[in-house]
Write a structure and sequence with these properties.
The protein has about 500 residues and is of the alpha+beta class. Helix content is about 45%, strand content about 20%. The strands form 3 sheets. Strands 1, 2, 3, 4, 5, 6 and 7 form a 7-stranded antiparallel β-sheet that branches.
Length: about 500
């Protein structure tokens, strides 16, 4: 099979040892040293030439050794990754290498194997996928027959079959990779500074040599003696040890990073990493443990709220899992009674996404149909028939829970008498049913890491799509926000709204 027709992403060209060695000589300061070596050789100052060449050799050897070792480690790791795909061809199922998957193949989708290409689902049973690599959203996406599924995404639950539509560079992840690889390399801050330093040193050396030459002429020295002295001073003004010193410092930094289980391919990347001024992190799962625990319930109708949680049993979202585990614990301790055994089934639903911010489940039993919803409380309040005074009371409760760093989930429901398929237009005139508060503890070691960043002069920013007061409370726990900061921001934001 032609390489262009294989199911592989655009591969980086393997860097040869010779290329790595040549790259060590591309520093502006090294160019200055090479020029100085040529001059000292022309003047028969062979001892000086030898010292300059030794400095260049040490610098090149250090840089080559570090980068070659990193490149070799990376290539060895790549060889360990040999993904497989289960394919159905001519009615027979067999396992092949991912690179051999072709357009038109029927691929089996299981949790054990990665999604091999972009394709259309021809069969799906309880299928949910994490598409964070493409969309940045970690919330599981429910997939059904006819939906597209993409290479690089991760199957979370279920089982299915897909018909391969695109492979390799034609997949969504392949196009992203091609666009990223087409970006030209930019110089690091250190490279810019070394370039300036090399220019300044060259200018200073030339000016010193010219000045000595003129002074020598004025005092009547011989031309050959003046030239030799002027060139010697110019060469002496070039700090041969600076290049080696910089390389040694970067090599030490590279070694320290490697001890943290990270591979640095280029010496200058260690310097770029050291130039970081701001670190932005997500809240859930990064700053926090990402393990939710229900800590408070505040429902108008407990039975209806419990039933909506029970009906979400097929969902794989961490929030739904946490709510079900909490309810199971309540049931096992006999806190929840008859509602646990209600013979109700889900006949339709709208899965959660980051735009709508709610999950809708249509439950059906002998008593009829009820539409259950849970999600962002402010969204469900907007879609409910709750009166103004009651809404203000519930908003105060939401703010109270959020101010303690809790994740707040709103609940609502309504009777559903339509026989048509559920749509977003049906999400209106809801009956508000209260709140559930969950705790997501701060991850161990995060506060210490923030302190370390701050002591190094690095700013720390937390990004979250959670309720505003929840984010503020977590920032206070991290020591990133105090009461005076909160008051100033509140005053500024409200003044802007006014």
């Amino acid at each position: 099979m032609d390489q262009s027709q294989k199911n592989v992403l655009v591969q980086e060209r393997v860097v040869s040892p010779l290329s790595l060695l040549v790259n060590q000589l591309k520093s502006p300061l090294v160019f200055v040293l090479i020029f100085a070596a040529l001059i000292t050789t022309a003047l028969a100052e062979y001892v000086d030439t030898l010292f300059i060449l030794v400095a260049i050799a040490i610098n090149s050897a250090l840089g080559f050794y570090q980068e070659y070792k990193a490149e070799n480690t990376l290539q060895q790791l790549k060889k360990l990754i040999n993904p497989k795909a289960v394919i159905v061809r001519n009615g027979k199922k067999f396992t092949i290498e991912l690179a051999e998957v072709m357009v038109g193949d029927i691929a089996e989708l299981t949790i054990e194997h990665q999604i091999p290409a972009d394709g259309e689902l021809v069969e799906a049973m309880g299928l949910t996928v994490n598409e964070a690599i493409l969309t940045g959203e970690s919330v599981p996406v429910h997939k059904s027959h006819g939906d597209m599924i993409y290479a690089g995404t991760r199957l979370l639950t279920g089982h299915g079959y897909m018909k391969v539509k695109s492979i390799g560079g034609n997949t969504s992840i392949g196009k992203i990779g091609a666009s990223v690889s087409s970006i030209s390399d930019t110089k690091t801050p250190l490279q810019h500074q070394l370039g300036k330093l090399a220019r300044y040193l060259s200018i200073i050396a030339a000016l010193c040599a010219a000045l000595l030459f003129l002074v020598g002429l004025l005092y009547g020295y011989e031309l050959s003696e003046i030239s030799t002295t002027a060139v010697a001073v110019a060469v002496a003004s070039i700090p041969e040890g600076l290049v080696v010193t910089l390389t040694v410092i970067l090599a030490v930094g590279m070694q320290k990073v490697s001890k943290q289980q990270a591979i640095v391919r280029k010496l200058l990347a260690a310097e770029t990493l050291g130039s970081v001024t701001t670190v932005c992190v997500d809240k859930t799962g990064t700053v926090t443990e990402g393990v939710l625990n229900v800590v408070q319930e505040d429902f108008i109708d407990n039975d209806l709220a419990y039933r909506s949680i029970r009906l979400s049993e097929n969902g794989s979202d961490p929030l739904e899992i946490a709510m079900r585990q909490w309810l199971e614990k309540k049931h096992s301790s006999q806190v929840v009674s008859g509602s646990w055994e209600v013979s109700e089934k889900v006949v339709d639903g709208i899965p959660f996404n980051s735009k709508q911010k709610y999950t809708a489940l249509l439950g059906e039993s002998s008593g009829g149909k009820i539409l259950y919803l849970f999600g962002a409380p402010e969204v469900l309040l907007d879609k409910s028939t709750i009166d103004k005074n009651s809404r203000e009371l519930w908003e105060a409760r939401i703010a109270e829970y959020a101010s303690k760093g809790k994740k707040v989930i709103g609940f609502a429901h309504k009777e559903y008498k339509e026989n048509k398929k559920l749509s977003k237009k049906d999400i209106s005139q809801l009956e508000w049913n209260g709140l559930l508060a969950l705790d997501d503890p701060i991850r161990q070691g995060v506060i210490e890491s923030i302190r370390e960043c701050q002591s190094a002069g690095i700013n720390f920013k937390m990004i979250t799509g959670d309720y505003l007061e929840t984010g503020i409370a977590v920032m206070k726990q991290l020591g990133l926000l105090d009461e005076s900061d909160h008051a100033r921001r509140w005053h500024r934001d409200n003044r802007c709204r006014a």
